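Bench notes, bay 3.
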Amino acid sequence: MVKGYWVAGLKITDQAKYDAYRAVNSEAFHKYGGRFLVRGGAYETPAGTAWPRNIVIEFPSYEAAKACYSSPEYKKALDARGDGVEINVVIVEGYDGPQP
């Protein structure tokens, strides 16, 4: 089964709201098998424009990634975050084909 991913870039505009979000988002991630591959950290931007914070979360399937985002558990986290970030999230299906 092909994995699914959330690829997110964000700018924190209200640290307290972002902290409230982080305090409750693990419920949804645990339920749907989410696992952080990237959670902030150093980065370079060789092309384009980067967000100040970059996140990649792996899920066991594309379907699990989509279900997590629309779940009641994640809705609770989004409500806690409110307008505390500017964000871009892409849910993408992984690739399991031939490699170079």
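Next record in the batch:
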Amino acid sequence: MMIAGRTVQDLLAQFGSPLYVIDEADFRSRARGFAAAFPGWEIFYAGKSFLCKAVVRWIDEEGLNLDVCSGNELAVALAAGLAPSRIGLHGNNKSVEELTAAIDAGVGRIIVDSFEEIDRIEALAAARDVIVTVLVRVTTGVTAHTHEYIATSHEDQKFGFSIAGGQALQALLACHRQPHIGLAGIHFHIGSQIFQTEPYAEAVRRAAELVHRFRAATGVELTELDLGGGYGIAYTAQDQPLELGRIAHDLTQAVEAARTEFGLGPFRLSIEPGRAICGPAGVALYTVGTIKPVETGQGQRVYVSVDGGMSDNIRTALYQADYTAVLANRSSTADPFLSRVVGKHCESGDILVHDVYLPADLRVGDILAVPGAGAYARALASNYNYSVRPAVVAVSPNRAWPILRRETLADLLALDVG
């Protein structure tokens, strides 16, 4: 296997195993694809999927904005030189310190998620005599067909104000009454890894109805609508992502239909793709350590252990995410055998790939590649069992360079002050 002209053997020899590899050209092309498919819309790259200063510079150069979910993500964006006006701050429990940092930096918008936050923003803005632009995050009640832990639009969860319960309208009115809050519009996000556009269309309609109700109550028409992200990618051959042009067409039609139904003017529209940009651009590389056939009572399963695991990709253990893996350092004509790719950590749930066919001549020292690892792998990585988090390497036809260096044991010991 080669990535941007570099063999996986060369990459591991230079940067060590395990390793995340990001194809810069692929990342950039997906960013440009969203900008081209949604002309006139603002594209906010969802930094939570994977963020570092190099990624901030890439999205900046491709004309995208950035969505951050913490004060530390905001600090990374500012350190990389992104204009604060192109940053939006999310979060269901933003601290006073985080809000202060965002307001003092001059971020373009804050997505409000609680009544306490409305009061905090008003107090901080009043003390500085500034107007802070906000969107109100609402819960539309639309069910997206995805895992419970990454569905964010049902009623019983921590994000947003419920439209059905009346809290969303109350939050809009509360923001409207504050002299130092500039209420611009509504934000919703229905979940992640979604392969249909129908849930978005229904969510748009419910959000537009809320805009209509707010106008009836105040005489003011909100002008901004953010449809969130969540567009699915192909982790395995069974996943069938929608073509980007189809997503753009269906979402645009949904907005126009809702505007017509409720007699609304044009919206300033935005979306927040993250996984769909960085996920397919990333590959995780592992080295095989042990190969263990196990009798299950229903046949034999072969456990292939690699030098990473749930510390560098917890998604399989966290919400049963599906991945695949391929032998990457050589070709093989051997018959395939059903295997399970597992990590080296002291947990039986330390599984990277539940079921995958690998060549029967697989041997210790071989390299396995797991695609779709650009999103929510390094971002969710941990130091479980005192493991060090792998490096992230960017590759282009001309060079390969670390954009996040590999941690060392010395890094971890430096935190241990006992």
